[in-house]
Amino acid sequence: MKKVIEVKNLVKKYGKLTAVDDISFYVNKGEVFGLLGENGAGKTTTLEMIEGLRRPISGKINVLDCDVRKKLECIKERIGVQLQSSAYYQFLTLSEILSLFGSFYSKNLNIDELLEMVDLREKSSSYVGSLSGGQKQRFSIIASLINDPEIVFLDEPTTGLDPLARRNLWDLITKIKSQGKTVVLTTHYMEEAEVLCDRVAIMESGKILAMDETHKLIERSRYPFTITFIKEKLSSTLLKKLKNLAVVENIFGKENKYLLKIKTNKEMNEALNVVQMMNPESLTVGRATLEDLFVELTGKTIED
Amino acid sequence: MWKLFISNLKMLARNRQSLFWVLFFPLMFTFIFGLFFGKNTSLGTVTLLNKSDSQIAIGLTEVLEKSDLYIIQNGTDIDSAREDIKKGKIAAAVYIPEDFGSLPAQDDLQIEIIYDPGSQSYSGLTALVNQYLTSVNFQIQNSVPIFSSKLEPVTDRELTYFDFILAGVLGLALMNSSIIGIGVNMAKYREDKILKRITTTPVKSWKFVLAEVISRLMINLLQITIILAVGKYLFGAHIYGNILVIVVMAMIGAFLFQTIGFVVASFSKTADAAQGMAQAITIPMMFLAGVFFPIDSLPKWLYLIVQYLPLAPLLRILRGVMLEGNSPFFEPKNIMIVTAWVVISLGISIWKFRLSDE
User: Fold this and answer.
1) Which of the 8 DSSP states describes residue B299?
2) Is the ipTM of this complex over 0.90?
3) What is the reported pTM?
């Protein structure tokens, strides 16, 4: 597969703080690549160095076979960038903004079609100020598509949106991928990365802790399988049996709700037999999530 | 870049806050000062109560009416005139008693000037009346004054306080709209990450800045035209210099203030901070650089400092051209100070103003 971005031994420091600490990764053509991590993990700094907005202390970045340091202008023509929580001109209409940004590039997509793609056609002569949060974010993304870029960078595209607006954006990102574009996004929502990303890198304090295809990454978890169920008064013999097969936890302190974290397929089948025998309510068999892996890797939950 | 330029003009026209600084604020000053000191203004109204039909009395009424200092109205009742003065309706009254001016003169017949000591506007009137009576006295006594004075104006041009103010308001308008306009706008663009967003595109930073500067200079040109036109045609301001020279000098001033605006934007992270910093620069300058009154009447130590404020030499040049018809190079010091400021603030802008964070 063709690599459209290659990052080698990238380092960035702000004074004494090392924001990005010797990271290397690549992004394949046509995939959705996710940089995952908490606020301050170094995701945005990494992204902005690839976009040429910040200068690395050391390391090498190649985008579309061009060195970012030497051929930035040529790269800028071929990428689209959506910045984290940025606003647009207050006194220009949506179509005027798109046409203005289009004038910066040699290649342009049709403005009406772009607006149509995110259901903003009838808002084309409104100001950005009159849009809802989700509409603003959608507009911000199509504004980064105006030059029909080969790579689209989305920095926390769904932060602060309600669940429905987030799902809307997921559809949009999927649509962009289906047009053959490469998407690089940052997020701190694990389930979002699980749904959208083909490959994920988990960042923490400027380093990449783990990186792989999303499903493989999850399988790397120490306890890839889970069983949850509800049972009033679990007998101590059964509990002992389960504890031999799995890690048993009460979910968020609810005494009747149990979570079993299981290492192997064999152990899972045995545990399932035990659980089924006691005829519990609400039995679910599942697998670990990216969030579980993240908690294992960093020793903390991402939301705090 | 054309598109950037057009977009900027659209935004300037749609932004009410910037329109206020650009047009309404200076026009408000032009109107206020125009109404007070523009054409047809006088020191007040004087009621003339003439009971005499002598030559001397008629001569005095003619002198008063010809003088443009006061609006003269005829009255009959001295008591109602007194009331009017007390109420502030008229500035003063001149009472010429019956038989005044007929010869031989009677000692107890005197012209009375009734005035309110609390108001200043009667002093010109007494001078006017006394001057007339003195000349009449000399004539009647067939004598010639031995000592006299002669007035020699350096210019035969008519100038009013409004003419002085108009140049001030012009400079004030350019200063406010450019320093506050550019400073706040650029800081807001930075806050909203619009500047950063621009740097993600292939457009060159200098093109972005140049489009901003040129579109604002167009607005400045509109400001200059409107202020001068309103001053001249609505309030009868006298403009003696070449209009083209005035516009060019004003545009140089506008450019200077724009560079100061960029300096403000370079040092403020938020639009609010820029607003504060811009006002900290413009408000003292409004009072200390000679917009409303000549600064050479300030204490000497203060004058030595404030004469170098960016607005001060610009106003001296504008007034020199507008009121005296001088060349902008008449006093080369002024143009040198302006140039020095342009070099300084342009230098700081180029050095410090960046679209991106690094």
Assistant:
1) -
2) no
3) 0.79
